[in-house]
Amino acid sequence: xxxxxxxxxxxxxxxxxxxxxxxxxxxxxxxxxxxxxxxxxxxxxxxxxxxxxxxxxxxxxxxxxxxxxxxxxxxxxxxxxxxxxxxxxxxxxxxxxxxxxxxxxxxxxxxxxxxxxxxxxxxxxxxxxxxxxxxxxxxxxxxxxxxxxxxxxxxxxxxxxxxxxxxxxxxxxxxxxxxxxxxxxxxxxxxxxxxxxxxxxxxxxxxxxxxxxxxxxxxxxxxxxxxxxxxxxxxxxxxxxxxxxxxxxxxxxxxxxxxxxxxxxxxxxxxxxxxxxxxxxxxxxxxxxxxxxxxxxxxxxxxxxxxxxxxxxxxxxxxxxxxxxxxxxxxxxxxxxxxxxxxxxxxxxxxxxxxxxxxxxxxxxxxxxxxx
Length: 372
Description:
Blueprint: E1 5-9, H1 20-34, E2 38-44, E3 53-54, E4 57-62, H2 66-69, H3 72-87, E5 92-96, E6 113-117, H4 130-146, E7 149-152, H5 155-165, E8 170-171, E9 197-201, H6 210-219, E10 225-229, H7 236-244, E11 251-255, H8 260-269, E12 272-275, H9 284-291, E13 296-299, H10 302-308, E14 313-315, H11 318-326, H12 329-350, H13 352-368
Parallel strand pairs: 1-2, 1-5, 2-4, 5-6, 6-7, 7-8, 9-10, 9-12, 10-11, 12-13, 13-14
Antiparallel strand pairs: 3-4
């Protein structure tokens, strides 16, 4: 079988200690190495993993001044990565997202195929001011028209690209593994008991509807413990949320958690799992919640519904959240039914081996045609 020389650009690096694209890069790079491909991943020089190889994956460390100069540092980091690609030939540059890398599109080497996962609708994120959102819309177009091929991680994003740009993309979702080894001992570290708490996992940003959810949590008569998992000390909105709900003693901001076993156990034993994401494609944490057997309460939008279909409860506002929390019968009525359906979906359409094989087949077909 033919092989490829692949490099993954657009993440802060592997192993994952940040977010969804990093998690995908971790799983996919390991899969591709196991298949015999030559795989490299760019890592920020601030990444805690400092060696030049990780389980067979080559790690290319590049200067990333984001911690010193803010968002502008992301552009410099991406430029450093692109310039490296010009010095050493790669068959395929897999670009995850476009926010700060697409401005360097013209510098991408012409001898490599550039394949871009378009991520979500970054320019719709309310955390950004209007000039930034205008730039992100421009950057989106740069990525679409300067990539050789496009990947959409949701049907909604695929349709948007088709409607807005008259361009085709290939739909490949994210993946997850069904969680099969729960242990209540993990809960002791978080001072919670099985079935007696609700939770959410998200970056603390406005478009994730965290304030809407917590307003509903505050208004509900039922005062079950509520865990907010996500870095709360990295932006003004996180600080705002902590201040706003400081008198709601049952709402606990516990910061970022990156131990997947801990997260899976917390989801598995939760009463209600809230997913407020409203912008973007297939969110990894949503698939993980499905794979953990959580009873999911999701924001009512096309991205979430295309994944969950009828196997979740939905909310549009804080009043919906309040009513769901106070309606104790929903847990008993829907938990096992939705759990069964969602796990079937993971096993059939979203398991990591299937997703990774889809990516490999797609990349190989673009590199070699159907003769590989």
